[in-house]
Amino acid sequence: MKNRKIAVFDSTLRDGSQGEGISFSVQDKINIVLSLDELGVSFIEAGNPGSNPKDMEFFAEAKKLNLKKSKLVAFGSTRRKDLSCGEDINLQSLLSAETEYVCIFGKSWDFQVTDILHASLEENLVMIKDTVSYLCSKGRKVIFDAEHFFTGYAENSEYALKSLEAAVEGGAECLCLCETKGGAMPLECFNAVKTVVDKFGKKVSIGIHTHNDCGLAVANSLLAVEAGATHVQGVLLGFGERTGNANLSTIIADLQLKMNCECIPKENMKLLTPICKRVAEITNISLATGMPFVGGSAFAHKAGMHIDAVIKNPFAYEHITPETVGNERVFLMSEVAGRSMIIEKIQKFDKSITKSSPIVADIVKRVKDLEHEGYQFEGADGSFELLVRKAIGKYQPFFNLHYYKTSGEFPRFSDNQSAFVQIKLDVDDKAVVTAGEGDGPVNAMDVALRKALEEFYPSVSQIHLTDYKVRVLDGKSATASRVRVLIESSDGVDCWATMGVSSDIMEASYLALVDSFEYKLIKDVEKKFMKLL
Q1: DSSP state of 372
Q2: Is residue 123 within a helix (H) or strand (E), and if so which, with residue range?
Q3: Residue 484 to residue 515: CA distance in whole angstroms
Q4: pLDDT (tens digit, 9 = 90+) per residue, 23-40?
Q5: Which contacts of 262-269 are long-range, i.e. CB under 8 A and separated by 24 or more positions?
Q6: Who contacts 221 (Cβ-Cβ below 8 Å, separation ≥6)?
Q7: Secondary structure element (H or E) that encloses residue 224, with its range
Q8: Cα separation of 330 and 162, whole Å?
Q9: Distance between CA 111 and CA 450 in Å, rounded?
Q10: C-beta separation of 36 from 69 below 8 A
Q11: Where are the beta strands (DSSP E) in 351-429?
């Protein structure tokens, strides 16, 4: 298989929106369309204009877009069994979207026709042919989604193939075989696609649409391409109904980098990770760290021997270079990371330190001691950097704590005020006493710290806490257990994570907050210094 062109059909805004907890505004949908167009997918299935007012509004707005690479697709079903195409409101809504391409789904499993649709088998074939023919007569290019194809093919292959024949006779230019229940095994999928390619492949393009109920959505999609499919449907980040859809970020990378196929422009491969992160942000979900190619852990190394080898030659443990897909290599700090990892981090601040320098052994020991106490630096890059800076003398505190006092009230005295913190700091040789109210003691602490520091360091106002996690480290001690607090922060440009560990959750939170503020302030000082050079 060499240089085969594969049409990528993204259904994030239609099939993906059926995932639990997923809800897009019209503006969200516009932003995702623009992102997918920038990536360069062939088709973007944007919704069913006849199903809800939001999709109708979206398609009205989408007419104003000037897409460069992608074709927008409206989605709908075959006509209803007792109506003509001209009388079917959903088909008229589909036409009103004014997209060049439409995707129509129809039944290819006889059980679905008789027991769910309550139509005769012949009537269903007529509905498919009529609908496709009608849309083609209105100037639309039709992709036919053969719903439940693989189940239908397994139980009644003759009828499943007849449903495809009806779509071809109606004028469809692509037959997409839908593995709707997500239960087909890889060879079952391969053999069915191969049969369809052999029968219809010279007339129309053959596509694949899989679900991940057995964890095989990507594998089945790749095997379908091996069998001759040239059109692949899925969702960029793999979410969707039940366990999700085929993950297109993985499929695109596998096809383009491993199977000599062209899915998106070659120069756009480096956009894959940034655009996946952007779509995750718009969707208001976290990009799974373990996601192949684009996840934060896709090129993360922790074991000492692995890190040492990767530093010498990344080919030792990486199947591609992370930059190929716009990702980056990460060395995780831990008690098993070894000296190579420490050196890699230290040399960012002092290139004169080598593997044999005594300070390296001191830092390794300090890391192991702290991880024994409950720290876990692989998730707290900011705190680890501060630890290294303190060890090598590249750190100066921006403030010192005298004390803090916390108090809370229940029932609450207002909806967003339930705690009070008083704090005293030394800042720039001045004693500062201030207080903060907040929605809980951690929020109140954050408010009080900002009040104390912003007069001296205005950039503190740019820091936004983006995540706050608490992990109980020793459940045996019940409420006296040690806890690890992880805080993720951003200033709108950079992101960093810091942590604190204590049997007192407020102390752990304070330690993590202080590291977050100091990390930001150190970076500001360094940026200012670099501008002066």
Answers
A1: H
A2: helix 121-137
A3: 14
A4: 888 888 999 999 999 999
A5: 262/3, 262/4, 262/5, 262/6, 263/6, 263/8, 263/41, 263/232, 264/8, 264/39, 264/40, 264/41, 264/69, 265/40, 265/69, 268/38, 268/39, 268/40, 269/324, 269/325, 269/326
A6: 208, 210, 232, 234, 246, 251
A7: helix 217-226
A8: 52
A9: 64
A10: no
A11: 400-408, 419-427
pTM of the model: 0.69
Q: Which two tokens stand for residue 218?
A: 């990507």
Per the DSSP assignment, residues forming a β-bridge with 417 are: 414
DSSP class of residue 478 equals G
Residue 455 CA to residue 129 CA, distance in Å, equals 72
Tokens of 513: 């907050």
First-to-last C-alpha distance (Å) of the chain: 53
Name the token pair of 266.
């070659």
Give pLDDT tens digits for 110-122: 999 999 999 999 9
Is 260:1 a contact under the CB 8 Å cutoff?
A: yes
Distance CA 164, CA 152 (A): 12
Distance set, CA 324 to CA 249, 271, 280, 328, 465 (Å): 13, 9, 20, 9, 31
Banded model confidence at residue 389, pLDDT cuts 50, 70, 90: confident
